[in-house]
Amino acid sequence: MADPVHAIAMHGQPALPADFKAFPYVNPAVKKGGKIAYGVVGTFDNLNPFILKSMRTTARGMLDPEFGNLVYDSLMQRSRDEAFSLYGLLAETVEWDEDRTYIQFNLNPKAKWADGQPVTPEDVIFTFELFRDKGRVPFSSRLDKVAKMEKVGERSVRFTFNEKADREFPLLIAMTPILPKHAIDPATFDQTTLKFPVGSGPYKVASVTPGERIVYERRDDYWAKDLPSKVGFDNYDQISVEYFLQDSTLFEAFKKGEVDVYSEGSPVRWKRSYDFPAVISGDVVKDTFTPKTPSGMLGFVFNLRRPIFDNLKLRQGLTLVFDFEWVNKNLFENAYTRTQSYWQNSKLSYLDAPADDRELALLGDAKNRILPGVLDGTYRLPVTDASGRDRNVLREAMTLFREAGYTVKDGKMVDAKGTPLAFEVMTQNEGQEKMALAYQRSLAALGISLSVRTVDDAQYQQRSQTFDYDMIIKSFSSSLSPGVEQQQRWGSASRDRSGVDSFAGVADPDVDKLVNNLLNARSEDDFVAAVRAHDRMLVSNFYVVPLYHVAEQWVARRKYIDRPQAVPLYGYQLQTWWDARAQK
Known about the structure:
By secondary structure, the chain is α+β, with helices and mostly antiparallel strands. It has helices at 121-134, 169-174, 247-256, 267-272, 277-281, 312-321, 324-332, 357-363, 372-375, 391-403, 430-444, 457-465, 484-490, 509-519, 524-541; strands at residues 7-9, 35-41, 76-78, 85-88, 91-96, 102-107, 146-152, 156-161, 203-209, 213-218, 238-244, 261-264, 284-289, 297-302, 337-338, 407-409, 412-414, 422-427, 449-454, 471-476, 544-546, 548-549, 553-558, 561-562, 578-579. A hairpin with a 5-residue loop joins strand 5 (91-96) and strand 6.
């Protein structure tokens, strides 16, 4: 039997001791009160975030990495100031063994649902069984790696794992939101609903205008408000989420004061468009944050389910044709840095890190599929002259197209059968469309036909969810503790699973092996080696045409929305901000 602990970490030990009072990036003395209005682009017709139906049109705030999980608590709470550490929430303490063959959650006796009922082990067991039977990925697959789930004593639940489980899996169990058995009908759980749910979280749904607005009210009787892992969070009496059809409309609403916080993604707009009266008067404040996290990968994603893209040399050639320098100069005032690695700006990246013996052993024969420059850490995408038609780079691309079996005939790039090389990129907004049109011009110079189709949000979500596109622009976020999301993005088992993030449709045993290596790494050194090997494989296989990143986060806010001075490892966290008007 293991001793109960207050927190767990993916690698090493949690940073905070058992008697910690609050996370280091919150203001523990903040007074609760006031309100905030968030704004998002899209629509919603559902308050159940755990089902496949309307999965991408569930109201924001129900299960939300940005605004917080307002209604449902999980067994443990993540610290955003550590790579991957969890502290007690519904679970007061945790027990597990060195090999992580099991994990036991000892529930906090104070934990209660919004209707006053206690949170019980039966609720935990009910939740995982319900997700298995009626939930969406990844919740539906949680029990696939569990040999036995059982109530232990009066307040505890133990999960014993089978051979499919990896070392990250106990932490994913711990982060799973728990639902009330007494307030849910399993027969109708998989149907969309606007019925107000019963949760154990800090807020309850107060009102809903379908597709337009959802309002949450803070619970005065929230059981965990004084828990160390929740001190300094959930500071508004009211949170509203306002919906808009376009980002431009959302930005105008922010300028008018209808929305209180705006997360800016455009460097051009950040430089040029914040000259409206509220900024000049000081009523709107601009904040710049520098998180200590990897770059992630934004890019044009090839859909390998399309036979045309099942050709590595072709994907490599198409990657070279994109003229980043032209785009950066003409569209973004040279504000961006070209992304070369999925974990750029961190020790997990292959950049400038030659593969050592540990990593070569993990790669095995797959090392022969890695570009030599990627293997020794020196590879970089070519830098063009920013003309849009750099002859040296296009010549290199043409060599790759010929190796892929393509030639130019009558001004068109054709395969051995004479079929022209043509495909479509699906875009979501004006910014993506501009990038796609720039790519279109460069490809046209080589006789390649790229059509650009911009669709509305509903169609975009439906088509991306069912992988109905040739190419799409997507962002793959990266953390300092990559894990099971890598299986969902790149694993063979995810290729044909609707609703997961397998946008490239990769099905490759070598990729599967490398992902499993990082999931099962026991030491920090093994973990770093495993992620770097995975990074090298992704880069060498050109599943994505890399675009760009910035090292900063830009947020504008109304002056009366205040925030802590400390910024956690992962950057700003909206759930710790507050209404300054309530502090008087």
